[in-house]
Design goal:
This protein is α+β, with helices and mostly antiparallel strands. The chain has one helix spanning 7-27, and strands at residues 43-47, 51-55, 64-69, 73-76, 80-81, 84-88, 91-94, 98-100. It has two domains: 1-30; 34-100, SH3 type barrels. The protein is elongated, with a radius of gyration of 20 Å. The chain crosses the membrane at residues 9-26. Keywords: Membrane, Transmembrane, Transmembrane helix. This is SH3 domain-containing protein.
């Protein structure tokens, strides 16, 4: 016993606190459905469409390589071609449905 608290209870509380800390620290690093952005430009965008297709090239007919749900945030590049913003290598999304996050360099 430590301060009148059984050791077993202290160990359980410590383990749960550690798991909680790991969970909280890891949630910011998750990306939706494999469509993570490039991130090196300081540009970050929010999706305004219900579902936004991420394409392999800056063309509406290009292969869909990922999707974002509404209000998802992702890193992006400043490069825009043909109405599509570059998110990462071979990942482009329509600028019509992306809103730059305030305070970022887009």
């Amino acid at each position: 016993m430590f301060l009148g608290i059984p050791k077993r209870a202290l160990i359980i509380v410590a383990v749960l606190a550690g798991i909680g800390l790991i969970y909280v620290m890891g949630t910011d690093k998750q990306s939706p459905e494999g469509a993570e952005g490039g991130g090196s430009s300081g540009c970050r965008v929010t999706v305004t469409a219900d579902v936004l297709n991420v394409r392999a090239a800056p063309d509406a007919g290009s292969e869909i390589v990922g999707k974002f749900n509404q209000n998802a945030e992702t890193d992006a590049q400043v490069e825009v071609q043909n109405g599509f913003r570059k998110l990462a290598d071979d990942k482009w999304a329509s600028t019509d449905y992306l809103q730059p996050v305030s305070g970022t360099n887009c």
